[in-house]
Design brief:
20% of the residues lie in helices and 43% in strands. By secondary structure, the protein is of the alpha+beta class. It has helices spanning 91-103, 156-165, 170-182; strands spanning 2-11, 16-23, 29-36, 50-59, 62-70, 75-79, 81-84, 106-113, 117-118, 127-136, 149-154. It starts with a strand and ends with a helix. Helix 2 (156-165) packs across helix 3. The strands form 2 sheets. Strands 4, 5, 6, 7, 8, 9, 10 and 11 form an 8-stranded mixed sheet that branches.
């Protein structure tokens, strides 16, 4: 597989659409469509920019999950606190801001920040970092009028029940599964 060309075909407010022209393993050209959250100046820059964070937050022996309405699927899903890194903002600052904006909580301690990974590798070059944090404080709604988020800490038993009955984003489902199954 060889990437021959990258061409922007649409410049939306939040997403940019690109067509990638590949030479496939049989030597034929293949057009592949992707979206990105940022400007990709050339094919060598594809997949190099970290766009945001996903936050796995704990308080004592409970895990934070957000029940949020997602317009892309037109219903509620359980998700992790997450958001985009703003210009000039460090990953640590983004973690603190997003946790506060979406829940009202503060970061007590950052336990670990994983290296960047692709969020939706089948159709986007978006890279995010997953952070594990201890949170503290009380829940408050600081979300925009376009977000509907209910934040709550859940016990292992409650998480197990949600995994059997509710819909999740894949990243939240994986984190919730490991929380209820393997963490002490």
């Amino acid at each position: 597989m060889k990437l021959l060309q990258l061409k922007k075909v649409k410049d939306g407010k939040y997403l940019k659409n690109y067509e990638l022209t590949y030479l496939n393993k049989k030597g034929n050209e293949k057009i592949y469509e992707i979206v990105s959250r940022h400007e990709i100046p050339d094919k060598d820059a594809l997949g190099n920019t970290v766009s945001g964070v996903s936050i796995v937050a704990y308080y004592e022996d409970k895990m934070l999950l957000l029940r949020e309405f997602r317009m892309g699927v037109n219903h509620y899903v359980y998700n992790l606190c997450a958001g985009m890194i703003e210009d000039g903002e460090s990953v640590e600052e983004c973690i603190q801001r997003e946790l506060y904006e979406e829940t009202g909580l503060q970061v007590k301690k950052i336990l670990q920040i994983l290296k960047p990974s692709f969020a939706a590798v089948a159709f986007s070059d978006v890279k995010t970092q997953i952070a594990f944090v201890e949170a503290e404080g009380s829940f408050e709604d600081h979300t925009s009028e376009n977000e509907q988020i209910e934040a709550k800490f859940y016990t292992k038993e409650e998480v197990k029940e949600l995994l059997e009955t509710e819909e999740f984003s894949s990243r939240a489902q994986i984190a919730a599964y490991f929380f209820q199954k393997f963490l002490p």
